[in-house]
Automatic annotation (TrEMBL):
Its EC number is 4.2.3.5. One of its GO terms (biological process) is chorismate biosynthetic process. It comes from the Bacteria. One of its GO terms (molecular function) is chorismate synthase activity. NADP(+) binds at R48, K54. The lineage of its organism: Bacteria, Pseudomonadati, Bacteroidota, Bacteroidia, Marinilabiliales. Belongs to the chorismate synthase family. This is Chorismate synthase. One of its GO terms (cellular component) is cytosol. FMN binds at R125, S126, S127, N239, A240, G283, K298, P299, V300, A301, T302, R324.
Amino acid sequence: MAGNTFGRIFKLTSFGESHGRGVGGILEGVKPGLELDMDFIQQELDRRRPGQSKITTPRDEKDRVEFLSGVMDGKATGTPLAFAIWNKDQKSNDYDNLKDLYRPSHADYTYDAKYGIRDHRGGGRSSARETIARVVAGAIAKLMLKETGVDITAFVSQVGELRMEEVPEDLSAIESTPVRCPDTKMAERMIDYIDKIRQEKDSVGGVVSCVIRNAPAGLGDPVFEKLHAVLGQAMLSINAVKGFEYGLGFKASSMKGSQHNDEFYTEAGKVKTRTNRSGGVQGGISNGEEILFRVAFKPVATILKDQNTVDKSGNEVVMKARGRHDPCVVPRAVPIVEAMAAMVIVDAWLMNKTYQ
């Protein structure tokens, strides 16, 4: 299987399956001497882990990371940093009835078509549990970005038809509710809505928005590795992601140039823009303004309602799914979006250092 590595200088290769022994990664490009704040790394893992509320899967994983190489006396040595998170609460028997079935809108059929074999236990490599390696790498990327002053904050801006129209100035309330929405009243509505969907044995999608503040101008490499293109690749590689837009996105297609253009001005000798409809990126390179983007997640494919499908022999059957599944992945996706954004920004920052 190809395609398990992301990044150019700050580079993650991930491995593992949902119901295998564990998941993990090998991380290159970590700054030698970087202090690995284990409390912070664990805090990031805790934001993603399951079993924290009634709107997530009850699978009980503590998600403790173990570093296997590249660390001495709590600091990165600059050599490949290998790590693993061991699975503890698998219930693989829950998936035995799916061994010969193709779940609608899941990766079962496409994996079989490509490889001639698939891991039916929770989706194997296609499971969102793979993203835990990204969260570890993203946490380390955030530690490296501390010295640059870059701040990355993602939040739930939409669940189903419930949507926040504006990016709030104050994002401090994000971690105060399981749904991770900075508007507490909207968060309560979203939680009730997701719980209703859960009781109906169904699932629902949504949107995670992200704000990158204090990114310097000049990040990104045209033509094929424009900053927004790499961000798009990073986000679209996350399980269940179906859409990515930055700035005004598709809304810009219905505007005139006079409505969309961001006019420049100078303030204290610094070039700035009066508006930020470009989302902080122009010509594929950051312009020093806030980088704004949105990531659309589809409803979880595995639901507990009966669904029509086919088996490996092509026979039409009715599938009765079992197991533990999120009714909505969006709240737990927030730290994953942040992690991938951090990896993109630190990689672009390191690329810029090679030009100096």
